[in-house]
Amino acid sequence: MKFVTAALFMLLGKSVVLSATFQAASVSMAAINAAIARASDGDTVVVPAGVAKAGTTNTNTGTVTDATVLLDNVPRGTGQSAALIKATLAPNQSFRLTGFTFRPGTTSTKANNGAVRLSGKCFSVRIDHCHFEKLYQADQIHTYGWLYGVVDHCVIDCRGGCTSLKIWHDTWADRTKGD
What is the pTM of this model? Predict the structure, then answer.
């Protein structure tokens, strides 16, 4: 059957494109960013178990059983985004964030723009099996633009005055503010 399928693709002149998986060398932000830089659209970046401090180059790579923990040490300031993960997505992309635990770090000033901040136009977004542990973020997950997807199997522990999930669908029907 494998031979017949391969021959069929050759006869039809079609090419088969397989996605790749890139393993970050460690849980440090530098290693994660290096793996992301090597990846292309459709590829998967796997982050190993451990603890990383977002917003600082000082990382603790001690293993945490079956968990990848991201500590919120992102500096707060005027005009700065304090998102731990920020992505602008395109229509031809697929985005999935899974298996992370987000914990407060040394920062105790509340930020107003989301621990996970997604924007753009994308029709395949999924955030699953993540744990948000009382972060100093007004919104744990904040989306903008024209995004379709699902948030499932997450535990979102909010501090007082926080929002678990904020969705700003400001480009309804691909028009600004739906106008």
Answer: 0.71
